[in-house]
Fold each of these.
Amino acid sequence: MSLGEFDHIERLRRLADHPAALGLLDDAAVLDGLVITHDSIAEGVHFLSSDPPASVGWKLVAVNLSDLAAKGAEPLAALMSLTISGDGEWESAFIDGIGAACESYGLALIGGDTIALPDGAPRVLGLTAIGRAGEKVPRRTGGKPGDRLWIVGTLGDSAAGLAKLQSDEDATGPLVDIYRRPIPLLVPGKALGPHANAMMDISDGLLIDARRMAQASGCAATIDLDAIPLSNAFFAERGGGLSARMFAATGGDDYALLAALPAGFDPALSLSSPPGTRFSCVGTLAADGPSLSVTAGSRQIELPEHLGHEHRGNSRPPVADRP
Amino acid sequence: MSLGEFDHIERLRRLADHPAALGLLDDAAVLDGLVITHDSIAEGVHFLSSDPPASVGWKLVAVNLSDLAAKGAEPLAALMSLTISGDGEWESAFIDGIGAACESYGLALIGGDTIALPDGAPRVLGLTAIGRAGEKVPRRTGGKPGDRLWIVGTLGDSAAGLAKLQSDEDATGPLVDIYRRPIPLLVPGKALGPHANAMMDISDGLLIDARRMAQASGCAATIDLDAIPLSNAFFAERGGGLSARMFAATGGDDYALLAALPAGFDPALSLSSPPGTRFSCVGTLAADGPSLSVTAGSRQIELPEHLGHEHRGNSRPPVADRP
C-alpha cells in the first residue's frame, strides 16, 4: 500500500497511526523484528488468463519476496489466499508454482485461506510474506539530498515480454520468461539494507517509483535515461534508443531494487554480491526542484503522460494500459 | 486454511512442513509469539452486493479477529488487501467499516495492497490479522477423549439473518445485524486459551467444524442438538424445534467459539467473562466411534447431507447453498 495508489489514502492514513505502519508509505510493515507484506494479483490485470498457472504461482511469491528484498529482510514464512474457480487442474499447477518458489527461497507456507468465487469471476490470488528484519530496515522515506539513486538489476524486460505475449500468446524467450518468473533480489537487498538511506522495489515503473521515493523523502529526484540498465535480451528486442529507454523506465513489473545511497558509496565495490549482480547509478536526490526530472545525458526530457502503473481504476486495466 | 476445504490439501501439506504451519490444520499460524491469520471474502459468496459496504468492512475485520479469538490471542495489527472496482463511494464506506472495527478492537492497520480488478469482476477483499499469542495457544488438534465440547455465543443468528435478506433485500432487525456485523469473542477466547485442549471458531457451521476438530484430534464427536444455544431473536423467528436447531447447527457464519475442555471444567463458573457471555456444553469427544454423531436429547439423529460450508467449488456458491 503505497502513497498515491488510490484516492482513499487519507481515510486509510487516519487508521494507520501505528509506528509499524511506516505511515503506509512503504510496501511492507515492520513489527517485532518481522517485515510483513501482502500483495495480491488479479487475472486480466496482473497476469494473463493464458499464462501458465505454475508461473502465476511463482510470480505471486516472487513479487512478495521482492518487497522483503527491498527492506533487506530474509524470507521466513507466508500465508496464501487462494480462490477456487472450479478448474482444479489450474489450481494444482498454481500451487506447484507457489511451492517451487517457496522452496527456492526458503519461504515456509504456514497458512492462509481458500474461498470459492462466483462462476466466471477473474481469479484474485494473494500472499502475505513475512521476513526477518535486519539490524536496519531501509524505508522509502529516508532519502537525503545528495544521495545517488542506484538500481540493482535491469529494467524493461518484463514489460517487453508482456508486449510480446500480447501480440503472440505463444511467444517464448528470456523476456517472456522474466515477465512470468521474476527473480526477487534478496541477496543484494540484504547487503544494501544497512547502507541505503531509502530503498524500494520497482514494481510499477522506475519513473513513478522514483517519484514516490522522492516525495516520501521530501526530495527532488533526477533520473538519467542514458544510465538505466538494459539487458542484452531487451537491447536485442528493442535497441537502446530513447523510446526504448522510456519504455523500460515506465513499463513496470521489474522487481529491480531502487536504493538511495550516500554519494561516494559504490555498491559494486563495497558489497559482496552474487556473480552477475548489476548495480547502476541512474540519478540523484536533491533538496529542491520538482519531485521528478528526467534527462538523457545532459538533455532535459519532458515527462511522459504515464510514468508507470497507478493500480488505479479498472476501465483501462494496467495490463492493457502499458505502453 | 483448514483440513478438507479443498482438494489440493495434500499438495499444500507437503509445502507446509514448518512448525508454525500447525500442519495447516488451524485457521491461524503461530510465529515468534505472534498469531497470524488471513481470511478473504468475495462478493456473491461471502457477502451480498446489496450489503452496506461499511458492514462488509466490519465483517472482514471481525471474521479475522474471530480466528485470533479462537487462538486466545490479543489483536495487534492488520494488513488489508483491497480491490478497486471503480465505485469510489462503495470503497470509502468499506474503509470506514474497516476503520470502525479496527478502532473497536484495538487493531492497527499497518499495510496491505490495493489492486484494480477487470470491469464487472466481483470484489475480493482480504485481511491478514496479527495477534499477540498468550502463554498457551490452543490448536484444533488437541482435543482429548472425555473432553466436553463447549460453545461460546449462540448459533444460527447469522444464517437466519441472511435468509431474511434473501427473501427481502430490505429486511432489518437483530438477525440481519448479526449477519452483517458479527462480534468476535476476543475476551472469552483469551480467557479460555489456557484451559482449552482444542479451540476453533465456528465459521462454516457447528456440525462441520466439530467434525473437523474431532478428525484433527483423532477423536469422535457427539453433538446434542437440544443443547445448542439459540438467541431470543432466533427463537422468535424460527422457534426451537428440531429443524430450527439443525438449521442453526449447519448455517455457519456464526463466529461463536467451539472449545474442547476437560470434563469438570465449567467455564461459566471458572472464568471471569463480560456480562452476557454465554457458555453452553453441547457435546463430548470420545476415543472411538464415527467422527461425528448427532443426537437430540437421547435420540440419535441422522446426519444431514450438508453439515455446513465447504468453501469449495463455485457452481453453487455457499451463500445460495445454505439451507
Amino acid sequence: MHVVHVQVHVKPEAVESFRQATRDNARGSLQEPGIVRFDVCQSVDDPTRFVLVEVYRTKEDPPRHRETAHYKAWREAVEPMMAEPRTKAEYVNVHPEDSDWV
Amino acid sequence: MHVVHVQVHVKPEAVESFRQATRDNARGSLQEPGIVRFDVCQSVDDPTRFVLVEVYRTKEDPPRHRETAHYKAWREAVEPMMAEPRTKAEYVNVHPEDSDWV
C-alpha cells in the first residue's frame, strides 16, 4: 500500500465547513478502486488541526485521485479555509500486509 | 474513536528489528477488545521513520493497552533502538463514524 498522511491546519471559523467538505471528499474517494481507506481525524488538543489518512493500493493511484471531481471540488472549497499550507508524508505499510488491509 | 498517531525515529541499524518487534506488538494489540486498528507504516523518504496508527474505541483503552504483556515487551525491546524520543498526537474521528469503522 501507498499511505499518505496529509496534515491540515484550518482557520478557526472554518472548522465546521472543513469537516463537512472533507467528509464529502472521503465518501467520494472511497468509491475509487485505487483507494482502500480515507480516514479523517481531528486533533484533540487543537480542533483546527486535522490529519487525512489516505491509503492507496499503489503509488500510481494518488494522481488518479487528483483528477476526480470530488477531489477537485474539495481542493477548491477548502483553499480559503487553510491557516497555512498543508503538508504530506508518504509511507509504505509494515502491518497489516497488503492482503490483510481493509 | 480515540486515535493516536505515534511518530518514531529509530537508529539506522535498528530498522529491521524495529519492524519485527512492532509487527509482534500490532498482532497482540489487535486481540485487545478496545483496539480497532493498529497500523504500522514506514516513511518512503526516510526508512528510519515510522508512524503507528492506533485506533482505540475509547480514551480509556490506551492505559489498558499499556498494561498488556505485548506492549511491555515491545517498549522494552525498542527502547535502545530509538534515535530520539517518540512523540504522539491524539485525534477523534470525523470520518468514518464510529459505527462504520473497521
